[in-house]
Amino acid sequence: DSGVTQTPKHLITATGQRVTLRCSPRSGDLSVYWYQQSLDQGLQFLIQYYNGEERAKGNILERFSAQQFPDLHSELNLSSLELGDSALYFCASSVMDSYNEQFFGPGTRLTVL
Amino acid sequence: GENVEQHPSTLSVQEGDSAVIKCTYSDSASNYFPWYKQELGKRPQLIIDIRSNVGEKKDQRIAVTLNKTAKHFSLHITETQPEDSAVYFCAARPRGGAGGTSYGKLTFGQGTILTVHP
Predict the structure, then answer these.
(1) Contact across the interface for B43 and A50, Cβ inside 8 Å
(2) Phi, psi of A41 (to 5 degrees)
(3) Which residues lie closer than 8 Å to A79 by C-beta, 6 or more apart?
(4) Strands A108-112 and B107-108
(5) CA distance B93 to chain A (A)
(6) Which of A60, A106, B5, B44 has its CB surrounded by the most CB atoms within 10 Å?
């Protein structure tokens, strides 16, 4: 157990819908990262927050957004869902942002039907 | 941006043999190189990492080597066991800095499926 928690574990929804994935970092970690893992794209970095502020952005679609709250938990919002959004979404956390290990949560498996 | 290539995509070895997985990266600013092990349906777990000021690091049966000049790094597993069977990912992270946009972003290789036969 890495200490990073994610909810829900599984999510099944329909195209066009909107979902919210939640992540709680390890105690003391200020930085949260979101990754998408699909069979054809591997592990792709989406976005990073550090102490409530957006720090870095990857190939995150405009339909996706995220935020980090004052208690440091983070939410990833996915809207206008498409079949291709089906994937495992991982959250990771680290103490700060550079030169620190990232610890991954158990992931949320999103299935879009 | 950074690009990480990982080889081989699949690796099959007999128990007790050694396994080597290689990665190359493109961004010379990268200075942190972790390796993750992922079992089916589970989260990636950090197994070893190396920073750019070190050429080699070892932890029991696992070792990582880094060649900054050639921009490649490798994972070495000795005396493999069936429980080593998993997908292994290498990653690279560039040095962050004032105004930088990379910070903690990890760029992953495509993964290597390692199978250790008893």
Answers:
(1) no
(2) -110, -5
(3) A18, A63, A64, A65
(4) unpaired
(5) 9
(6) B44
